[in-house]
UniProtKB/TrEMBL annotation:
SMART domains: HTH_MERR (SM00422). Residues 139-160 are annotated as: Disordered. Pfam families: MerR_1. It comes from the Bacteria. One of its GO terms (molecular function) is DNA binding. Residues 7-75 form the HTH merR-type domain. This is MerR family transcriptional regulator. Gene3D superfamilies: 1.10.1660.10. Residues 72-99 form a coiled coil.
Length: 160
């Protein structure tokens, strides 16, 4: 039995939560803790509902209004849903990583391209010095002049 299984009748749920059954009916009416219903329309509470009822009792005893309790329970439910979603995504990610180990291992090739490596493989170490020479067309102005040939650049350089 999981915590979401609706198994407790209202009398048992009230006893487990330490409340009067009429209080549980009232909480159901205002939407604070809403149990599932059977085909005959009777209420069935789960362990999660019982826990929420105990939380409502504790917060009410601490002076929190029922509206405040409702907001706190709503936020708690959102956190639970998001936590479940994170677990699902982590599980899917772990499953995907097991299906294709080493798929994300890569290195730079000699021409600067990206190459995939199998899991556990290493590239050969190289000690040569590589000199990078930029493509002059990349650094040319719209007018096609390099900094050395551009008279505007000379003016800017002199001002600095």
């Amino acid at each position: 039995m999981d915590e979401h299984s609706p198994v407790f009748a209202i009398a048992i749920a009230a006893e487990l939560a330490g409340m009067h059954p009429q209080t549980l009916r009232q909480y159901d009416r205002i939407g604070l803790v809403s149990p599932r219903r059977t085909a005959g329309k009777s209420r069935r509470y789960s362990m999660r509902d019982i826990t929420q009822l105990k939380t409502v009792a504790r917060l009410s005893a601490e002076g929190v209004s029922l509206e405040g309790v409702a907001r706190l329970l709503s936020l708690e439910n959102q956190v639970d849903a998001l936590t479940r979603r994170v677990r699902e995504l982590e599980s899917a990610l772990a499953s995907e990583m097991l299906k294709s180990p080493g798929r994300r291992v890569f290195a730079a090739g000699q021409a600067g391209d990206i190459i995939s490596l199998r899991n556990g493989a290493r590239t050969q170490r190289r000690t040569e010095v590589v000199v990078w020479r930029p493509d002059p067309a990349f650094f040319a102005d719209e007018d096609g002049l390099d900094e050395e040939d551009d008279p505007e650049f000379d003016d800017i350089a002199e001002r600095d």
